[in-house]
């Protein structure tokens, strides 16, 4: 019987600090995937490899802190 992986309970607070105007479509998609909608909007996301990848891709536009 396979054991179930325990889900990471760690969370990150992510804030959009720079505009999406003139950015690559893939960068806009990452921001939308994180749930950010407008400038200075803050969301809390789970600290997963998928979310970390999106954050790393657009890190120059974000402010990230542990929640």
Order of helices and strands: EHEHE
Poorly predicted tracts of residues: none
Q: How many E-type strands?
A: 3
Structural class: alpha+beta
CATH architecture classification:
2-Layer Sandwich
Average of per-residue pLDDT values: 92
- Helix content estimate: 25-40%
- Order the strands across the largest sheet as they lie in space: 2-1-3
> How many structural domains does the protein architecture include?
1
Major beta-sheet overview: 3 strands, antiparallel
Task: Work out the radius of gyration.
Answer: 13 Å
Head-to-tail CA distance between termini: 34 Å
Percent range for β-strand residues = 15-25%
In short, what is this structure?
With 67 residues, the chain is of the alpha+beta class. It has helices at residues 25-33, 49-57; strands at residues 11-16, 42-46, 62-66. It is built from 2 helices and 3 strands, in the order βαβαβ.
Task: Output the keywords.
67 residues, alpha+beta, Ribosomal Protein L30, Chain: A, 27% helix
List the helices and strands and how they pair.
Blueprint: E1 11-16, H1 25-33, E2 42-46, H2 49-57, E3 62-66
Antiparallel strand pairs: 1-2, 1-3
Commentary on this structure:
- This protein is an alpha+beta fold and 67 residues long.
- The chain has one domain: Ribosomal Protein L30, Chain: A (2-Layer Sandwich), CATH 3.30.1390.20.
- Helix content is 27%, strand content 24%.
- It has 2 helices and 3 strands; from the N terminus they run βαβαβ.
- It has helices spanning 25-33, 49-57, and strands at 11-16, 42-46, 62-66.
- The chain has a 3-stranded antiparallel β-sheet, with no helix packed on it.
């Amino acid at each position: 019987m396979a054991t179930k992986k325990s889900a990471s309970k760690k969370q990150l607070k992510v804030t959009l600090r720079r505009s999406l105007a003139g950015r690559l479509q893939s960068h806009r998609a990452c921001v939308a995937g994180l749930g950010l909608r407008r400038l200075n909007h803050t969301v809390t996301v789970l600290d997963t490899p998928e979310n970390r990848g999106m954050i790393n891709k657009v890190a120059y536009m974000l402010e990230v802190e542990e929640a």
